[in-house]
Amino acid sequence: MESPLLFWGVILWMIVWGAVGSVVLRRRYLHRDLDTTNTVFVGAMSGAALGPVGLAPLWLTTPKLGNLLIIAPALLTVFLIAVAFSFADPDNICVTSSGFVASQAVNGLIIGIIYGFMALGLTLIFSILGIVSFAHGEFYMVGGMLVYFISAVWLPGVPPLVAVMGACAIAFLIGAVFERLMLTPMYRGKIDRPVEYGILVTFGLAFTMQYFVQAVAGANPVKAQRFIDFPRMRWPEDSDPIWVKTSRGGVTLFEQVSVSNPRLIAAVTCVLVLLALMYLLHRTWTGKALRAVSQDRDAAAIAGINPDRMNMLAFALGGMIAALAGALLVQAFSWLPQVGNIPAMRSFVIVVLGGLGSLPGAFLGGIMVGLVEAAGTGCIPDAQKAASYIPAYGMIVLTLTLLLRPTGMFGRRFAAGTHGKF
Amino acid sequence: MMRQVPNIAAVLFLGVLVAFPFVYTAGDYDYVMHVLITAFFYAILASSWSMLAGYAGQFSFGHMGFMGIGAYTTALFCHYLWVADAPTGLCDEVEIFGTWFIVVDAIGVTSSTLTQDCLREALAADPALSVGRMPVLLGIVLGTVMGGLAGFLIGLLVLRLRAAYLALFTLGFSEILKATISAEIEVTRGQAGLELPSLYESGITLLGTTYDKTAKLPPYFTMLGLLLLCLGILTWLARSRFGLFVRALREDQDAAAALGVNTTRYKVLVFTITCAMAAAAGAVQAHYIGIITPNLLFLLQMSLVVAMAVIGGVENFFAAAVGAIILQVMLELLRNSFEVGGYEIDMTIWRLVFFGLLLMITLRFFRNGLLAPMIEYFTRGHVAKETVARRQAAEAAFEAGREAGR
């Protein structure tokens, strides 16, 4: 970085004014007896973006904090950080090469879709059972492992689709059995602190599953074959640059943005399954029952829905979604029993960012985290350091969300499906 | 008499632990001692975590992070600060009361050549220069203070967070810390690890016997002493108003606040104290092992602490500590692999599978852990019987009075 002082100076300035804004604005709204829900977030963001200039009008007029006032300062802050970065480090590849930026953005989007899909499972479990499943990463790992074992060891030569579906079915089964055996006492009020019980018992499941797989499969990395080879083609034939060019291992857009085959397949499958899931949740009786239980457990029970069965379904379905994400990515990464830790952390970040229990929030949050990570890995000057910090980017997002807006983007303040307080 | 059984058992257990290093003479002495020292280390972590999670209801998954802060503080302190009797002229140095404090350059892993390490260069140039390390004890104290300070700050940040959010936030804190330590290779040497002087670098003489720096006995008693100190502090806290307030906070934060408990203060305090204990344990363990790497902060380590505390009994820190010692010893005993019908069973992994299963079964069927109910049975088991007897006596007296009145 050419002038790091400039960049870190701007960041420090933003942090100071953001902190001042979040505290001052909340006090002001409290003093005037107004709704303080969004004051911390808006105060921090407008303070960070515009400093005293942004805060003074808010302080004086105390307007109603609608969507525009929530989103605009946040976007402005992100934009200003980008501007400060480009001034501080004019030679950086993120600033000089638009092709690189487009490539990073597309890859961030694609990986973000997969993250969001995985987080969807976690938020589904949370919205219905009211627990955060710490075993989510292990379901992801088991999904990938099963695809490898089915397609390469147990039944060599089966089509990848069968292997993926087999992995999903087994993960569904594990989830259902675990829920029946371990989580049922939570619903009867037999446990004083169900939230903590849920965390600890899924933690135990994660521990057991990880070491079970390590004991059975060994600690050597495995990798599955690519599911499908793309046909080699270029379109349109005689233009410069060529808009779309495909080879067996990937797709190149405008000769700038290249996306590898496994990631594209995974992202497309995720979107398709997501659409199927949306159909299930909004158009079928079971899906409607699931949503009803997440809104109000008792009312759903009165309407003839068995909430316990929905609990089982939600946990199994959530586990299956994570397993599917793993099953699709096993062709892209080499697979170890510990591989689930980082995606699990990412899912936690995403569900908190999107709002615990909110399905669209999880998906949007996933894309945002994907983009943040792409920017973080692509733009930090020291590449090795940037790679080491990958787990930290998401955690910074998590910390900021929890401090500024604990309900996340679309969080419901009172999620009825929860069994305890949050 | 029944009531005293757990106390007698505790004294006996402690007696065995104190006498053990003098009585045991088998060939694997060093190995067994090492297992026990590690067990005490986990016992400190498990008991302080049970204070935080079981007593105060703050399910923090960042306990290993605070332990790491303690360990890395003392490691960086001992690695970068030296004292000398004369100026080197090459390093950054300050003179205080005739002693020169030297700050060694951070050179990372790849380059430990003579020209980049200013202290070694100075020593090569001037062999008469006498250079000494900073005292280990000061490093440990500093580590403890830093751990407590970090606990204080995190405690302030998580005031508004409950249950699931708290768990995620603390886990995130621990992960950021691990990523930072792994990434800042110039300072922390990343996965290569930082070397530390051992606890008693120049040896120590106890009861007329001199132990050199690799002997296991002095660190054994240091760790055991630290464990007893922590348990003592925890007992004192639990029996005072602090324990009462903290338990009220666990049961219902709003009700406790309404009854006049300063919830902010006690939440922050309990974080500070337990995190300082974790940091102290980390600092001593780091000096004992002699090298620390970021792997110390893996989630597995946190899982072990949580599992030990839960299996022992999360709402009773004595049970958590004893549970940790027993489980650590058991885990070591189960290390031996064996063969069944041609299949090699690799127990180094399978023992952890059984450990996880044990954790889940304990949670499902023995919610207070395995050890805590036993203690409860002896100390409070008679209470129910006494109450019933007293009630029956009162009823009989009432009946008798009515008979007489008729």
Automatic annotation (TrEMBL), chain A:
Membrane topology (UniProt): Multi-pass membrane protein
The keyword Hydrolase is annotated on this UniProt entry: no
Keywords: Amino-acid transport, Cell membrane, Membrane, Transmembrane, Transmembrane helix, Transport
Protein localization: Cell membrane
Annotated TM spans: 6-25, 68-88, 108-132, 161-183, 195-213, 264-281, 313-336, 348-374, 386-404
Predominant place of localization: membrane
Residue ranges the record marks as coiled coil: none
InterPro entries tied to this protein: ABC_transp_permease (IPR001851), BCAA_transport_permease (IPR052157)
Entry's family note: Belongs to the binding-protein-dependent transport system permease family. LivHM subfamily.
Protein name: Branched-chain amino acid ABC transporter permease
Organism from which the protein derives: Paralimibaculum aggregatum
Organism ancestry: Bacteria, Pseudomonadati, Pseudomonadota, Alphaproteobacteria, Rhodobacterales
Automatic annotation (TrEMBL), chain B:
Location relative to the cell: Cell membrane
Signal peptide: none
Cited InterPro entries: ABC_transp_permease, LivM-like
Pfam families: BPD_transp_2
UniProt keyword terms in alphabetical order: Cell membrane, Membrane, Transmembrane, Transmembrane helix
Membrane topology label: Multi-pass membrane protein
Keyword Membrane in annotation: yes
ATP-binding keyword on record: no
Primary localization class, coarse: membrane
Transmembrane parts of this sequence: 35-57, 64-82, 136-159, 220-238, 268-289, 296-329, 349-366
Coiled-coil spans in chain: none
Identification of the protein by name: Branched-chain amino acid ABC transporter permease
